[in-house]
Specification:
Strands 1, 2, 3, 4, 5, 6, 7, 8 and 9 form a 9-stranded mixed β-sheet that branches. Strands 14-13-10-11-12-15 form a 6-stranded mixed β-sheet, with helices on both faces. It is elongated and about 85 Å long. The chain contains 14 helices and 15 strands. Helix content is 40%, strand content 21%. It is α/β, with parallel strands linked by helices. Helix 6 links the parallel strand 11 and strand 12. Helix 5 packs across helix 10 and helix 7 packs antiparallel against helix 8. The structure holds adenosine-5'-triphosphate (ATP) and magnesium ion (MG). The site of magnesium ion has 4 residues, from loops. Magnesium ion (MG) binds next to loops.
Length: 394
């Protein structure tokens, strides 16, 4: 019955003169999301509406799922559409639609008609009233409720007639590509993929950096991070994942700095490297999965000290006020949780001290870092030079 979806978008509808930029970005993201699916799809923009028309071997469930990964989409409405220029034919098709979708329903309903094609007979109000009556006679178990209907039959009469009543929720947000790019610090944990997803939801393209420490961290740990990048790519498009060999830097910190400060100093070097690659990519910020108080390295004092290592970019921490349980819930929703909980070693946990500082002082940490002078420059340089970059797609 269907071969068309009406795409409802929220915020992007209210962007004034920039509206077409947002609509184009949305259309592009829809095209990308559907590119690998069976069937052929055409995306049509028409006076503030975006339609996806499907043909060939397309599968409804798969198509809807793909659309549910496109930020900017608030609702996906399967539309019954046909060509007619007279009321009787419209009524016949409307009742066919009721038989198909609401055969044994006893829900309340309202009919809303918008007549854009002024050559169609009767006014919008008259058509709505006549159709309402026809539905009542055809399906006596349904009743009219104009204030709070269970089902709203939305009918638009343009060059064709469009009928829809179901709205499948989309992910919301803004189309990726409308808000620049940012560099995500992506570990193998639960938090950072969620953090990347949240920023991508606001229209931001995602680059990522992962620090590994072979042979202390395994090839499997790295594969896991690639899989997490794939989860993000399913929403955000291609993720350029930078894989940094962090072993020598970690060993140097271990050999030269107080052990209770290892984690915080290591985090500062991670941020410096993230900042370097962010610049290289033209990214406008760094993203982490930190949340206040979650671990010793995420107390307010620790965050302050970590933050001071980044000189030129904002650090976005979208999970900052969230509890772990809330983060887990989101991770399950976006599909990263199953991968995140697979066992792995993180380079942060390898060299971790028994009693890490929880209230580091910036001056003290900077003095400890000075012990690395003369060693760290070469190691940083090598880490940057040997970084492997993989393009990760969903
Ligand atoms: P996650 O669940 O995201 O791993 P976490 O609770 O384990 O977070 P930390 O290990 O303190 O917290 O890391 C805080 C943040 O630092 C992470 O969310 C991530 O953004 C970044 N980070 C930590 N380890 C790495 C790593 N090996 N590679 C890249 N980024 C990392
Ligand atoms: Mg972690």
């Amino acid at each position: 019955m269907y071969h068309t979806f009406l795409i409802k978008y929220g915020e992007i509808g209210i962007k004034g003169k920039n509206r077409h930029v947002f609509e184009d970005a949305l259309a592009k993201q829809i095209r990308l999301a559907l590119a690998k699916k069976d069937g052929s799809f055409s995306i049509r923009k028409e006076r503030g509406r975006v339609y996806v028309e499907c043909s060939g071997e397309w599968n409804e469930e798969e198509t809807v799922e793909a659309l549910q990964h496109v930020f900017g989409i608030v609702g996906i409405c399967p539309v019954y559409t046909f060509e007619t220029t007279d009321y009787e034919a419209l009524e016949r098709d409307m009742l066919k639609y009721i038989d198909e979708e609401y055969a044994s329903s006893s829900e309340t309903f309202k009919v809303k008609v918008r007549r854009v094609n002024k050559n169609f007979p009767l006014t919008s109000m008259e058509i709505a009233a006549k159709l309402g009556e026809a539905i009542l006679q055809h399906q006596p178990s349904m009743h009219v409720d104009v204030h709070n209907p269970d089902v709203l039959f939305d009918i638009e009469i343009r060059d064709r007639v469009y009928i829809y009543s179901k709205v499948i929720p989309g992910p919301g947000g803004m189309p990726v590509g409308t808000n620049g790019n940012a560099m995500l610090c992506l570990s193998g944990g639960i938090d950072s993929p969620v953090a990347g997803w949240m920023i991508a939801k606001r229209g931001v393209g995602i680059d990522a950096v992962y620090f590994h420490a072979p042979p202390y961290t395994s090839e499997r740990a790295k594969e896991k991070v690639v899989d997490l990048a794939k989860c993000i790519a399913a929403y955000a498009g291609t993720v350029r994942l930078h894989i940094v060999n962090f072993t020598d830097i970690q060993l140097a910190i271990y050999d030269n700095c107080p052990h209770e400060e290892l984690t915080i100093i290591m985090r500062r070097y991670m941020m410096r490297i993230a900042e370097h690659f962010a610049h290289e990519r033209g990214d406008l910020g760094i993203i982490t999965g930190e949340s206040i108080g979650q671990v010793a390295s995420q107390t307010m004092q620790s965050l302050l000290v970590t933050d001071s290592a980044v000189k030129t970019l904002p650090v976005y921490r979208p999970l900052i006020g969230m509890d772990k349980s809330e983060i887990v819930e989101l991770a399950e929703k976006i599909g990263s949780y199953e991968t995140s909980i697979l066992p792995y070693e993180d380079c942060c946990t390898i060299f971790v001290a028994k009693h890490p500082v929880t209230k580091p002082d910036l001056g003290v940490i900077e003095r400890s870092e000075q012990k690395l002078n003369g060693i760290i420059e070469e190691l940083m340089d090598r880490a940057l030079r040997t970084t492997e970059i993989i393009r990760v797609n969903a």
